[in-house]
Specification:
Helix content is 37%, strand content 26%. By secondary structure, it is an alpha/beta fold. The strands form 2 sheets. Strands 6-7-8-3-9-10 form a 6-stranded mixed β-sheet, sandwiched between helices. Strands 2-1-4-5 form a 4-stranded antiparallel β-sheet.
């Protein structure tokens, strides 16, 4: 799509407007972030607010900077200026390992991050590779097996026997071994059959509602992502062009025309 197609989206929402979407128990905040890869900035004075146990979906065209936001939060980009805070503590320059271990941020990659020749249980235990006490990883893995029959029934089988949906469940569950409070989820529905897409979003919904996880997702299936999320940001060229509740964005004619096939 040509860039000028997005000019009808109007003025970008400011920090106050974004903060109003996440008014209670602010968990993660990004302030005027300029970040990218090498010397090239992808995000431009980018702001983000998300409350504890709130879900945020990032939508927009390819190259808009959606995954770059997740990468920046987790520590995979060059940050030129700006700040990232969790519960008021600045974490901008922490390494990914520090963010996972110290402040509870987990990053769930796009598909194909399981180790196919390792068992399901061994894959799960890899999620706790930076834990000081390995027995804690085993305890968390047992809790996951108690919760998900699909994984328990295959715990001693090689991960390559899993269906696409089961692999995605394993990827999500592996991240839970470190007991994170924030889940960064990159394209949870990519490559999945519809029935498995439903399963994955049910799992994410349960993690948010039952376990009070804060969830930030990037989702090409904008309709599915916005149906799931409490709030959504529409990104264009490294900035937020529209923000609102998931329901508001689903009803927005510009969002519908550009991203929902309406």
């Amino acid at each position: 799509m040509a860039t000028d197609q997005y000019e009808v989206l109007g003025d970008s929402p400011g920090p106050e407007e974004l903060e109003n979407l996440s008014p209670n128990d602010l968990h993660l905040r990004i302030k005027k972030l300029n970040a990218g890869y090498g010397k090239m900035a992808i995000l431009h004075d980018f702001d983000l607010f998300v409350s504890k146990a709130q879900s945020l979906c990032l939508v927009g065209p390819n190259g808009a900077g959606k995954s770059t936001i997740l990468h920046s939060i987790y520590g995979f980009t060059n940050i030129f200026s700006g700040q990232i805070e969790i519960e008021g503590k600045e974490i901008t320059s922490m390494t990914p390992a520090e963010k996972l271990k110290s402040v509870g941020i987990a990053y769930i990659l796009q598909d194909n991050s399981v180790f196919p020749d390792m068992t399901v249980e061994e894959n799960l235990l890899m999620g706790g590779y930076i834990k000081d006490k390995t027995e804690e990883s085993y305890e968390e893995a047992e809790k996951i097996f108690e919760k998900y029959d699909r994984l328990r029934n295959r715990r001693n089988q090689a991960a390559k026997v899993l269906s696409g949906g089961e692999r995605r469940l394993l990827e999500i569950s592996r991240a839970l071994v470190m007991k994170p409070s924030v889940l960064l989820v990159d394209e949870p529905s990519i490559g999945l059959e519809p029935r498995y897409i439903e399963m994955v979003f049910e799992i994410l919904n349960d993690l948010q509602k039952s376990e009070k996880k804060t969830i930030i997702i990037v989702e090409q299936n904008a309709k599915k992502g916005l149906e799931f999320a409490d709030i959504g940001y529409v990104l264009v060229s490294g900035q937020t062009a529209i923000a609102g509740s998931g329901d508001e964005l689903l009803e927005n004619p510009d969002v519908g025309r550009l991203f929902l096939g309406g």
